[in-house]
Design brief:
The structure is a homodimer of 210-residue chains. Chain A has eight helices and nine strands. In chain A, strand 3, helix 5 and strand 4 form a beta-alpha-beta unit. Chain A folds into two domains: 70 residues, Orthogonal Bundle (Arc Repressor Mutant, subunit A), CATH 1.10.10; 113 residues, NAD(P)-binding Rossmann-like Domain (Rossmann fold, 3-Layer(aba) Sandwich). In chain A, the strands form two sheets. The first copy, chain A, has a seven-stranded mixed beta sheet, with helices on both faces. In chain A, strands 1-2 form a two-stranded antiparallel sheet. The longest helix of chain A is centred in the first third of the chain and has 19 residues. In chain A, helix 2 packs across helix 3. At the A-B interface, helix 1, helix 5, strand 8 and helix 8 of A face helix 1, helix 5, strand 8 and helix 8 of B. The structure holds a DNA duplex (22 and 22 nucleotides).
DNA sequence: GTATGTGAAACGATTCACAGCT
DNA sequence: AGCTGTGAATCGTTTCACATAC
């Protein structure tokens, strides 16, 4: 039923659509159409319809999309009907900021473990989760059933830690260290590089002679 | 000299190339070729050459690229030969993590101002920068010559704060709030949405039946 | 009448393959 | 001989426009 081969560009937009639909639900809209979704998401209606059509036929011609049912469908496609089990590896400033970010729970992400190499940080309790030693990485990942890891360790450590995560079965990694990870093709990796993003903004300023 | 119309996909990769070159410089490599850059950056050689060719002719046939001079060229294109003046707006956990991130300075970004709406945070000194009131936004931006703003305010406040930033002449905004900003076309905007990124990873897990 | 779903057209990005320079 | 720079070919994405369904 779920057609294979959803284009990557489409996948990147799905979380945006889901956010818009939740917002529409918050505004008590029972039904929404592609023009409205596009407006909220910052794209155009044709794009919205094409994107959704890769996942199935969720709309009703002449009417639009039922907000609740489209939320259900998108959540299913994104695999966030159950909370995903997330570990934060590296409890520095960024790691701790992410650990206490309230936006995760409501979007299907539960932080179930926090790891750090620094013994002085280990044992610190944050919310209901304690910081555990990175030496215990394998045990913690198994015990908690970690599915996604967020890497906020120093750049030098990132590859080694990623290797260990993959070896214990973690299939998805979001990497905040400014290094490219070399991992098996079946592991999903997203790279976050804030300084790099700022440089892209700087490029645009430069173009305008600023 | 700088040819117009560099494809956006190319621009996104330029910070990656610059990072790789700095790494090569650190390894005392005087010269590098497109195969080596590609390997470090996680692309292929043809892509690297095409990308660089949009910016100019920086290489020497039969030899490769002089590392130092390519660093200079890329830094120039990205507009980071001088430090860019950055303001962090919203001194919550994420804002404070970014404020103290050491990776900015070495990549051409200087945090010159930190703003927050909470009076209890105002006046707190961090590094050499004090947190100032968001009421003073216009004055601070002018005084410090802010070029790029990093928005780490609550989602509800993001659009209003962004409007004020643009009105005082900020031309580039990196937005961490999970809302699409509606701004004039000449303002450069990058959206960061960590929860959304994690949902994309979740999609890939779901595909593999995980 | 209205809005979806989708082939076809237009557009943009990546890869190929080689001429041109060192 | 070796590596860049680049047209041409391929591939993927977006947009158009309309048949189809309500």
């Amino acid at each position: 039923m779920t057609s294979q081969a959803v284009p990557p560009t489409t996948v990147d937009r799905l979380p945006v659509y889901l956010r818009c639909l939740l917002q529409a639900k918050g505004m008590r809209m029972p039904v929404i159409n592609s023009v409205q979704i596009a407006e909220m998401a910052g794209t155009n209606a044709a794009q919205v319809r094409k994107d959704l059509s890769y996942l199935g036929e969720f709309g009703t011609r002449g009417i639009g999309y039922d907000v609740d049912s489209l939320i259900t469908q998108l959540s299913r496609c994104l695999g966030v009907t159950e909370q995903r089990r997330v570990a934060i590896v590296g409890y520095g400033r960024l790691g701790s900021a992410l650990q206490s970010y309230p936006g995760f729970e409501e979007r299907g992400m539960r932080v179930v473990a926090v790891l750090d190499a620094d013994p002085s940080k280990v044992g610190t309790a944050v919310n209901d989760t304690a910081v555990e030693s990175i030496d215990e990485l394998e045990a913690v990942v198994s015990r908690e059933g970690v599915e996604i890891a967020v890497l906020t360790v120093p750049a030098e450590a990132a590859q080694a830690v990623a290797n260990r995560l993959v070896a214990v079965g973690v299939g998805a990694i979001m990497n905040f260290a400014p290094v490219r990870l070399d991992l098996p093709a079946d592991v999903a990796v997203r790279q976050a590089d804030v300084a790099g993003e700022l440089q892209v903004l700087s490029f645009h300023l430069e173009l305008q002679g600023r």
